[in-house]
Design goal:
The protein is α+β, with helices and mostly antiparallel strands and about 140 residues long. The protein has 4 helices and 5 strands, in the order βαααββαββ.
Length: about 140
């Protein structure tokens, strides 16, 4: 594990995004809350938040962090599926990019799991860091 003890504790924020592409009929089912497994959006949101909190258990050598805030937002992306965005925040000595990316990844997987019986052709794509702030490397924003 990288030694971060010499780094200053600063506020650090990371935002990541990802997409679950699906047929319009599957998207309608998800948005109406009519999936057999229940509330897809609510379950995916909760799964993403829980995953962010456990990132250090999933990614080797990742520091355990006392996260101060995690949000996971799911929104319709045209007729092609869902856009999922996660934000992780901490005041600490290392960044929260992995936590935001893990939250998005697990939220996407949860959507897939909950409606795979309806459509197995869904695609998870475009998972990436879109913004980070804090720390020595400063502010980063991806091009859209």
């Amino acid at each position: 594990m990288v030694d971060v003890s010499a780094k200053a504790a600063t506020e650090r924020v990371a935002i990541a995004e990802g997409y679950v592409r699906m047929r319009p009929a599957t998207l309608a089912l998800v948005l109406k809350g009519n999936a057999k497994k229940g509330d897809v959006l609510g379950a995916a949101r909760l799964a993403g938040i829980m995953a962010a909190k456990r990132t250090h258990e999933l990614i080797p050598l990742c520091h355990p962090l006392a996260l101060t805030k995690v949000t996971v937002d799911l929104a319709k992306d045209g007729t092609r599926g869902l856009r999922i965005e996660a934000m992780a925040k901490v005041t600490g000595q290392t960044g929260v990019e992995m936590e935001a990316l893990t939250a998005v990844s697990v939220a996407c997987l949860t959507v897939y799991d909950m409606v795979k019986a309806v459509e197995r052709t869904m695609r998870i794509e475009g998972i990436r860091l879109i913004e980070k702030s804090g720390g020595r490397s400063g502010h980063y924003r991806a091009r859209r």
